[in-house]
Amino acid sequence: MLVDAALGWVNRLLVGEDWARERLKAFAGQTARLELGALSLPLAITASGYFVAGDRNAAASVTLKLPADAPLLALTDRPALRAATQISGAADLAESLGFVFRNLHWDAESDLALLTGDIAARRLLEGGKQLVKWQQQQAKNLALGLAEYFTEESPSIARHQDVSTFCLEISNLQEDLAELEKRVTRLEG
């Protein structure tokens, strides 16, 4: 069910992108396997340039191994997701898939406008973006507040400056101890 929903969403994006379907048509019948932990999803490419669920037992032309945090990265940092994905198999298919997924974008406002109208869709998306920015800022403020509390108010975490000062004092003590040992050795001799 989840696989069908994901395939439906990707194919929905491909409907409006003739260039992407044309690029995928050259690889009709080939299979790409997406791996995320124990989840393995074979995707077959149709003659019309869409994706369908592939045969789980068939050998894949390309394997894309996604990092464990792929769902989060897909929403927050797509370039990091692309960089962390391990690709093996046919280079030409991998390059085409990479190009299509890099350049395939969802026009959320257009889809939302079909349900709510143009003005409401624009305002809902802008409100959503502002909400996400607000949440990110609040998370950053919380992290900074906790860091300040644990370093200043209830020092259970040492500040960088304090650690550097401590290391410098230890180094000075070691030098003084070495000098004292030299003096003791000279006095004994």
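The record above closes out task 2.4. Task 2.5 opens with a second protein, given below.
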Amino acid sequence: MTGPTTLPGDEQRTPLPDRVVTYWRVGSALVSIPVTLVIIGALVGGGAPVAVTIAVTALLVAGFLAEMLVVIPRRHALWWYSIGTEQIDLEHGWIVRRRTVVPMTRVQHVQLERGPLADRFSLAELKIFTAAGFVQIPALDRAEGDRIRQQIAELARIADDL
């Protein structure tokens, strides 16, 4: 049996910035806390038994804490990318690992997006479009995102001219 095949991106793996963990935690809290409060309010307002309300609340809080303390840091630790002259290499996922290699010759355009929360953390999301759809790097330093967007645009244009 042979070992895993190495790909060009393996030597230049770049992790996401460390502050992405806080960014993802805040984003998750902005969704989870209001949803939890609505569910608890519906249980209380709907006359659910106290034991059911307490059990549901405990499950929601446990799920929230598990996401904050385990899932998000692990997601960050497993996410990496590599931008080469001929390809873009991405790997992420915990239970299901996804590795995507996009040849520069397939890149159609590149888009950098920033929402209000990402702006607060000086982060941006990079989307790389091909005829088959897009891949994304979910949170880059804004300056790094601008640099990579420009680099990919130039390399894709060069690859397209070949």
